[in-house]
Amino acid sequence: MISEYFRLAFTNLFNRKLRSWLTMIGIFIGIAAVVALISLGQGLQQAINNQFSLIGADKLFVTGKGGFGPPGSDSAGKLDTHDLKIIRKSSGVESVAGRVFNSLPVEFNDKQTIQFVASMPDDLEGMNLIEEVELFKIDKGRFLRLNDQNNAVVGANYLGEGLFGKGVNLGNSLLIKDQKFKVVGILKKTGDPGIDSGIVISEEKLRGLINRPEEFNAIMLKIKKSYDPSKVAEEITKLMRDDRNQKKDKEDFQIQTPEQLLQSFNTVLNIVQVVLVGIAAISLVVGGIGIMNTMYTSVLERTREIGIMKAVGAKNKDVLLIMLFESGLLGLTGGLIGIMIGAGLSKTVEYVATQAMGTTLIQAHLSPWLLFGALLFSFGIGTLSGLMPARRAANMEPVDALRYE
User: Fold this and answer.
1) Which of 102, 114, 205, 385 is most buried (most C-beta within 10 Å)?
2) What is the pTM of this model?
3) CB of 130 closer than 8 Å to CB of 120
């Protein structure tokens, strides 16, 4: 019986091909947008998760309550060399490193831009930790060494002509706030604009350029293997809080694990995805209204046909199910087309991002649950949209329907 309902519904829709296609437009546009946005969002989350897993769970990040913030911005609480000494003396800390960030004018080829400049610690312990946490990989040349006071390592974007109209090569000199730095290394492309367009110089030199002899933007530390990172974080928090004479939960600094940072990123990404999917859902609402309109029109056009069906023994339930199968098929077909378009769009974005930007962060993750959920949702939208017209058709009196002209 169900196969017969399906056959009748398919035949009726096929006989109205143009109207069926026009009706499905809203559905497959909405589903395509939802699939593309969610798959890219899930891909980005997966890529970020992978990056944080590479950092390791044995790292802690200390910042002002405002977090890392944009380059050069001040946080609610300030960190300095005194805090770094307190952290270094804490039990369970294997190594520690401070970072200084700022945006500074950079000149090359008689052109000047404002770029992100980060410090490299002037001690071997700090240098090794930063290289481990940041996962720096050299493409050309070498990384900074101890006492590299007038040398710099630059991101991959400096190889191209986009920043200065001419590519920067090893041995070239950059003017950073009117001080000359020789390029000794170029990093591999990461897809992160902050790294790919950034510059790394010694901590001492950067402090001199920005006149901040003591402050850090962030302090990173590595925990010894036998210690619990959360316990170490609690101890450091207590030591720093007592040193600053602050009350519990009123600190102007924060200590976070990679998992906590990841959770913050995922929370933001989830909110963005919900907003974008909500916007895309407008198309689905429009598509549902289109299906409802089509089904109402179909009921009016087929009033005599419905009357004949009832006159020869069709029950209300039979008419209702035939109409619901039609509207469900409209939604399901629109969903299938939308999934294919959405998957194609997200994969295209992934390919373009990889080729043009060299980033692996923008990926399309087409999970089975996403595809199945989109298909089920489109079928549900179609079925619900056709419910009212189907009930009207089912409740028609055979005599009245046969008299309809």
Assistant:
1) 385
2) 0.63
3) yes
